[in-house]
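Re: export button greyed out
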Amino acid sequence: MVEDTDMQEEIHAEDTLEQVAARMAAARLHQRIEASEIMANLDIDSRAAQLGIDWSQVNLDSIHLPPGENFGIESDDEGVYHDDQLEFDTGFGNIIVVDNLPVVEKTKFAKLENVLKKIYNQLGVIKENGLWMPVDLDTGVTLGYCFIEFNTPQEAQNAKEKTHGYKLDKSHIFAVNMFDDFDRLMNVKEEWEAPQTKPYVPGENLQKWLTDEKARDQLVIRSGPDTEVLWNDPRQKNTEPVHKRPYWTESYVQWSPLGTYLVTLHKQGAAVWGGADTFTRLMRYQHNMVKLVDFSPGEKYLVTYHSQEPSNPRDASKVEIKVFDVRTGRMMRDFKGSADEFSIGGPGGVAGASWPVFRWGGGKDDKYFAKLSKNTISVYETETFGLIDKKSMKVDNVVDMCWSPTDSIISLFVPEQGGGNQPAKVALVQIPSKVELRQKNLFSVNDCKMYWQSSGEYLAVKVDRYTKTKKSTYSGFELFRIKERDIPIEVLELDNKNDKIIAFAWEPKGHRFAVIHGDQPRPDVSFYTMKTTQHGGRVTKLGTLKAKQANALFWSPTGKYIILAGLKNFNGQLEFFNVDEMETMATTEHFMATDIEWDPTGRYVATAVTSVHEMENGFTVWSFNGKLLYRVLKDHFFQLAWRPRPPSFLSPEKEEEIAKNLKKYSKKYELEDQDVSLLLSEQDREKRRALKEEWERWVMQWKSLHEEEKLERQNLRDGEISDEEEDDEEAREVKEVEFEDVIDVTEEIVQE
Amino acid sequence: MRPILMKGHERPLTFLRYNRDGDMLFSCAKDHTPTLWYADNGERHGTYRGHNGAVWCCDVSRDSSRLITGSADQTAKLWDVKTGTQLFSFKFSSPARSVDFAVGDKLAVITTDPFMERTSAIHVKRIAEDPQDQDGDSVLVLENPEGRKRINRAVWGPLNQTIVSGGEDAVLRIWDAETGKLLKETDKEVGHKQTITSLCKSADDSHFLTGSLDKTAKLWDMRTLTLIKTYTSGVPVNAVSMSPLLDHVVIGGGQDASAVTTTDHRAGNFEAKFYDKILQEEIGGVKGHFGPINALAFNPDGRSFSSGGEDGYVRLHHFDSDYFSIKI
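Workaround output, generated via the alternate export path:
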């Protein structure tokens, strides 16, 4: 420790800062000028010579552009001003400036240097000759600050954080800054200026796509380098492009839950796009090397995730998560730490946390989000972005947790403890009160999976229990009725208890669910309902379909219809099923299909073959009842996503009324359909005619050339008459016979 | 249309060719013996023994007296069609990939692969009327600018004035057959994006069809090298052919042979697909092969066609009468 108090002098922090800043500004300016000079000099010189201007005589500073004039040189990026700090990387990011050091004479210089090295070597590797403590040239007395250069910017950042405010002794409290920050800090104006209020610019109508006259839906696809937004136009049996950009995103794209925004991922962070006519960038969120994003259900907040593989494989990877306000772009909270803190540390948790780390609850208000980690559930509220009651919930050994989609209720599962002495538990917890609404103890349980129905009325818990021998498991369901008094629980077991459960799905907004159970390759599909007229509030089986080639269930978003799909091993078998009537509407196949997505209105389904397969990449659009509408083939097809729609504003009564008077409403659309199909066939015929004509022209040309060359050809064949012309005529004759076309048949009733 | 399955080859088929009268069908395969079949009933007529390597290509003279074959044994051989005797052997120092008789059958174009230090080349040979006078001298040798890339097909243009070639570099080239000058080549914009695997001329030498691994087939004007049509298939194209009778083209291919065993047999798409030549729309397909289709040929009368596959079979299809009344 440096104890010599006699060395202390008054430290003029302002002085030293100024000096540093001056040095730094000079260095930076020099850099910039050099760079721009090299690039622009050639251009400017030649242009100046043309105009007869002696360049060396011109004083650049005396030239002023008229205000508001940019000489037609427009910035192609409205965001360029915010970017400056990003783009000019000075390369000094690994240097820190330590201020408020004791001022020492030459004799003590080495001692102070050693002390500093000792402190900072613990925090990172100082580069060789990386510590520089300037001295007054005349007296040899130090100036009370030093520069330290580390190997990496991360180390520098760390050193800054750790030693800022470090007390060397009473009057020497370190003030540590990044070298790069000095410019910014020095440019703070002496006097405070009231921030200017920007004039209000009316934003674009972000919901314009919903007002499409033909009531079409949009979808986004990624194939090769391109990302495209398209209208699904089933009438034209094709798509209509909306917006296309190569390299729009660096990994994938995602719609916000209500469809307002499209988010793209880049090296520097995430960006959201939207707008009335084309897609313009609405906001950017800086997060280097962002890997995953997630929206809150009401799309108020965007969560971005980045994880870094540790250099030492034994360490956990580093995770950084940021929560942004979507509209303002402000970062509301960031979370940093090792992956362990963001997962329950299961066996698979090596690469990072399981996504989404934060699960949003409380319906569309985006009020709460929760994180599951070892023995705790942390629930945050968005008002303060802090923990509720400033405490996480302690739940020993909790392994899974789910929000109700509409209410602020969490369901959680705790497995068996102590070799079965302590039973497994499923509990419902109210937020923010943290009151346990209902819990159920379960015995000899292997695993549980929780499925919420989309309007939060029911919760199904699939329970895998051990058989008596503990050698195998069988499955059953515990069904919670959330909206009824005291939350009654029902137990459901399949007819054949030993059936394996392959898939489970609730009918959206409905009271039915479908289960695929039994043995591969031909499992059964059963449908159950939570309410029937006869049984009141009892779960009842509606029916079972035997031996189906299916391993996945896709309910229409409006319910009633379901696709039983055989993906992967089943090569894309599709069965369109009507659950109201319990009948199959269509069985078809999209060979090798990997993905199935209903459009948000439940009118159309897209099935896709993505680039996991080499061939026949692309997607197919079907009507809800399994009629093939059109196919689009795209090589290197990666992703397809329908643009979601916000929930309807119509009241249930109004919807019912429309359903009742459907005939009245549908007339208009039927007429439109007819018009379109007429127009289409007209266009089609026109196109074909043009193609035929063009072809005829080619053929004519070829024929005349062929005729001209006839003699020469004969010569080449030693005078043998080439008889190909005959063949040609023969071919023509055959064709002419075939062209008989019934264009239209009209029946007229002649009145007598 | 029940196809006739012709099983005579032990290895994948490489090429099929009808004679001008449409009564004979010549097949080449990776086994060493080109085979002659009756084009009507698929009966085997005979084989041409003498090659010591895969036979890649063949052509038959207008009067059906001479057959020329190109083989991986670094020779191209002339045969007497009737007796099956070998008349002459052109020796090269790398495999011969493609052969084509000129109009009048007095010249033949033969392409050779890049091999060791050899670059790919196109050779023009004079074919003597009397096999006794035949020599192996080249009239002209054309060097491909992309010498390390294979030339998969070279054929004569109208009146033997030009030679059209295409291969692994995905570029189609037209050469002057007299001087050897490069006259035209396709650019990246309109041309194929990947290896050109096959090339088929129209009967009157006015246009030709090319197939490529980029999953398309394209129709070109033979004199100007103008792109006229593009036919998109979902799978790599190995073979193409044009109906001499109707405005139909047929395209065959399928998943790469090395990936066949790893997926479902339907995934390969080993279908001969028919397209409307003018509207570029798919009309239908003929299934049956259980390996990629490597060769396709239309009978000159347009009433039957045959396909040869990686599976070693030649399938001979006589069209039903309703084929001739297809309307789209």
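Chain B has a mean pLDDT of 91. The button fix ships in the next patch.
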